Amino acid sequence: MEILLGFCQFNVYWGDKERNFKKVESLFSQLKDNNSLKIIVLPELFSTGYLFLDRKEIFNLSEKVEGETYHFLKYLAKNYNSIIAGGFLEKENNNFYNSSLVVAPDGSYLLYRKIHLFKDEKDFFAKGNLKLGIFEYNNLKIGTLICFDYFFPEAARTLAIKGAEIICHPSNLILPYAPLITQVRALENHIFWILANRIGIEKRGDKELRFLGKSQIVSPKGEILIKVENEETLKLVKVNINEAKDKKVTDKNDLFFDRRTEFYEI
Ligand code: ACM
Question: What does pTM read for this prediction?
Answer without folding.
Answer: 0.98
